[in-house]
Amino acid sequence: MRKRIVILGSTGSIGTQALEVIQKHPDSFDIETITAYNNAELLIQQAYKFVPENVVIVNKEKYNFVKEALSKLPIKVHSGEESLSQVVKSPSADIILSAMVGYSGLLPTINAIKAGKTIALANKETLVIAGELIRALTKEFNVKIYPIDSEHSAIFQCLEGESQNTVEKIYLTASGGPFRGKDLKYIKNIKPKDALNHPNWCMGNKVTIDSASLMNKGLEAIEAKWLFNLLPEQIEVIVHPQSIIHSIVQFQDGSMKAQMSLPDMRLPILYALSYPLRLKTDFPRFSFLNYPQLTFEKPDLEVFRNLSLAFNVMRQGGNMPCALNASNEVAVNAFFANVLIF
Ligand code: MG
C-alpha cells in the first residue's frame, strides 16, 4: 500500500530532496499535500509535477498568483498559517514530513500529533523549543516520530532491535563545519558567504549557519535528549571531519554500533518515510579506499562557545532551550543582514 505524504516546507532543502526520493519510488508513496511559506514559483512547479490534492502557500499575498497558476489542475489551493493545521489533520494522510524552518514548524507538528499522524521530523527546533510537551503528546496520542536529522536517523537505526537493551551513551558526530581549526580572531571577520560554504553537507541556509557556529550540534544534543529519552551526561559530541559515521550508540556492555554512509540527506529522508523498510536506491556508495582515514577530535569549546551554551541550557531545562533557540534565530537573521558579526 502506498503511503500518503504531507510535506510541510516542500520548497526548502529537505522538502525538495524529499520530493526527489518520492519521485523515484512511485509504488511506495503518494504526495497528498505540499506547502511553502513564500516560494510560490517553485511550489507551482512542484504542483504541476506531482499533482497533489492540496497546495498551501502560507503568505496570503501570493494566494491569487498560485490559485490562478493551478486553475487548470484538480488541486485545492489554500493560504494562511491556519491552513497548515488543517492539512495535517486530513484522514487520508499517513505521514507528515515536518521540514519548515525554525520555530514556525512547531504548531503544525503539534496539530499533526494531535491528529494521530506519524511524523517524519526534520525540524529539530520543534524538539528544542518544546521537547517535554512533544514527548507527552506523542505518548498521549500514541504517535511515532521518525527523525530525518542525519545524526538522529543514525541513532534510530542503531537502536533497531535493541528495545530491551540499555544505552550507556551516544556519540553525536559533527563535521566541525567550515571553521574547524580556526581561532577567535579569524572567526570575527567571517561573512555569511564563508559560513554558507559547508565542507560536506548540502543543506538549507539556517542549518548551514548553525553548523558553522556549532549551534546546530548543540540543538541536536537537545533534540537527541527528547527523541531517545537520554540524560545530558549520556550525550557526547565528537568532531569527525569526513562525515561518514553519522553517530554512534554505546550499550551497557561497552559494545558500540555506528551507522555509516556518504553524507547525503536523501538517505535519512527516505528511511524516515519507508521505515521499517529499506528501499533500493542508486545513490553513490561509500568506498573504503576513497577514505583510508576516518578521524576524530574534540570540539573546540573556546572558539565554538555555542556548543557549551546549548549543553548548559539542556542541563537547566525548563524554558531555557526555548530562549536559546529564540536568541539563535534572531542572531542568525542578524548575521545574514550583516548587522551582527559571527
Ligand atoms: Mg544533523
Write structural notes for this entry.
The protein is of the alpha/beta class and 342 residues long. It has two domains: 3-123, NAD(P)-binding Rossmann-like Domain (Rossmann fold, 3-Layer(aba) Sandwich), CATH 3.40.50; 152-263 and 290-336, no CATH class. It has helices at residues 13-23, 40-50, 63-69, 81-87, 106-114, 125-140, 150-158, 184-187, 192-195, 205-213, 215-228, 266-274, 305-316, 320-336, and strands at residues 3-8, 29-36, 54-57, 76-79, 95-98, 118-121, 145-147, 167-174, 235-239, 245-251, 256-260. The strands form two sheets. Strands 4-3-2-1-5-6-7 form a seven-stranded parallel β-sheet, sandwiched between helices. Strands 9-8-10-11 form a four-stranded mixed β-sheet, with helices on one face. Helix 5 runs parallel beside helix 6 (125-140), helix 6 (125-140) runs parallel beside helix 11 (215-228) and helix 11 (215-228) packs parallel to helix 13. Bound molecules: magnesium ion. Magnesium ion is lined by residues 149-151, 220.
Provide a concise account of the structure shown.
This protein has 14 helices and 11 strands. The protein has 342 residues and is of the alpha/beta class.
